[in-house]
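S.,

As promised, the D-malate run. Input:
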Amino acid sequence: MAHAVVLGSAAGGGFPQWNSNAPACRRARRGDAAARVRSQASLAVSANDGDWVVLNASPDLRSQVEATLCLQPREGLRSSPIAGVVLTGGDVDAIAGLLHLRERHRFAVYGPSRVLAIIAANPIFDVLASDCVRRVVLPLDERIELAGASGACGLAVVAFAVPGKVPLYLETTGQDPGLSEEGDAVGLEIIETTTGKSLFFIPGCAAMTDELRRRLASSALVFFDGTLWRDDEMIRLGVGSKTGRRMGHMSMSGEDGTIAAFRNLGVGRRIFIHINNSNPALLDDSPERRMANAAGWEIAYDGMEVTL
Ligand code: MLT
Ligand code: MN
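Predicted complex:
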């Protein structure tokens, strides 16, 4: 039976974020049980327990592996059950962890062509030597089988474009580049090939579209962008100048928010992931958490396990 482990549940920066002295981050730092520490968003999935596929390589990947028994070496002097990494975008919090995976382990990096192009253009990623680490382009809307250490691993993936942004560090003009729907940000459907059961992983999405609605309707399990509670949350808190929409993220609440957008979709299990340290729903004792739970949403936490 395929299962998934949440390696990290927070947005870029994690919780607490290194330079944040906001009340919620202070609670996390002093070990408050209702303000659980969270690393940056990533999911590991396996259908056979031997091969694991990591969805997004967060900057916290090294400590995520050390916190997750199933991702640790089991054989010989050097090995890893990590058979592949699938990327949903080129943001720092999705790709920086690839640098932890140098050391000549054989695996594959899968991503849409725009994201693989970003990696190819930056020579620091050549530490993943191409004779060990295959780059596999995921054509949008096409089902691709994922490889294990020997043969298929029992999982396939479909990558599909969602409204999103180019990574912040590629916004060279300082102007809002606007939303892209060409595969700068993608969602993933991960399918267990023997049963056809699947989960969706969509850690960044700027808007619900008719196409996305059709794709997700009646699905069993969706991990979805939970960056902000309110679109103007960072401005109101005085910690940023951008709205969620400007950053390529839908917000949980509000008329255009995620909770409203999913209300009649018939999705079985809805789990927010990629939750920013400014989002009060992170806190177990907040009214926003109660509202999200009451609307049928779970809030991912590091180490959370789900079965397909
Ligand atoms: C995002 O999710 O919007 C990005 O990860 C932001 C960032 O690069 O810090
Ligand atoms: Mn992010």
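The radius of gyration is 18 Å. The helical segments are 23-29, 61-66, 92-95, 113-121, 210-216, 233-236, 258-261, 287-294.

- D.
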